[in-house]
What we know:
heterodimer; A: six-stranded antiparallel β-sheet; 38% strand; B: Thiol Ester Dehydrase, Chain A; 17% helix
Amino acid sequence: MIPPLETDLIPIPGPSAPSSGSSWFRVSPQSRWFEGHFDGEPILPGIAHLALALAALARQSGRHRILTALRDVRFSRPLRPGDEVEVLLSEGREPSSVRFEIRCQGRRATLGLLVFAPG
Amino acid sequence: MTSAFPDPHHELGVGLLPHTGAARLLTAIVRSGPGFLEAIGKVGAEHPLASGGRVPSFLGLELGAQAAAAMEALHRLGATGESARRSGYLVRVREATFTVPDLPVDTPLNVTARLEAAASPLAIHRISVSLEGAGCLTAVIGTFSGTR
C-alpha cells in the first residue's frame, strides 16, 4: 500500500547538483498532518517523518516494500509547515534494510534504519 | 490502578492530550496504573496515511506515543493536580517490530504503554498495538514532554 502522500509532502527539485540517493520534498503548509498536531504550534508528527522516508524510497526504487521493523530512529528536529527537506537513503548493514536521514536547512532532523521483508 | 490515579474509566486522560481532531487517535482509556496504561485507539478514514481503508502499521507508533502521553498526563494530574495540556514529542524509536503490514481504519485497536525509564522530561516506554487480541506491533520509544 502506498499512501496518498503527495498532497501533503510535495516532491520538489533538489539543488543543481543533487547527491545520489537524495530526494527533496516540501512540507505543504496546508498538509492534513498539521490538523490538531498541535493547535497553535504545528509540527509534523514523527510518523510523518517515516512516511517521508518511505515515500522517498518508493520514488527512488519504483516499488513498494513491506516495512517489518525500525531500528534506532532519532527525531532531533521538528519539521514545520513549508519546510523543505532532503531525504538521504543508503543501504543498511542488516539484510533488506535502508538507512535514512532527513535534513532540513542543513541540519539533521531524523535518522534511522528501515528494515523490510526480504524480496 | 492505585489511588494516586484518577478514575481512568472515562476520557479524562485522552482529553489531556494536546492532539485534537483527526490527530487524536486515542478514544478511551481502559485502565491505568503507575507506569502502565491500556487504551483504545482508532484511526479515522480521513487520516493522511489512509488508503483503501487501511493505514501502514507504523502508524501504531503514534497510538503508542499517545498512550504514553496520556499516562504521563494522568500521572501529573494525580501527583500535582496539573490538568494543563502539555506538548509531547516522539524523539526516538529504539526498536519496533511490525507483525502486520497495515491496520484497518475506523476499527478499535488495543494500545498499551509501559514506562521503562524516565528522567524528566525524557521517558522510555514499551508500547504495543493489537487488533482483536492479535499483536500488530511492539516498540520501545522515547518521548519528550515540554517545549523543544
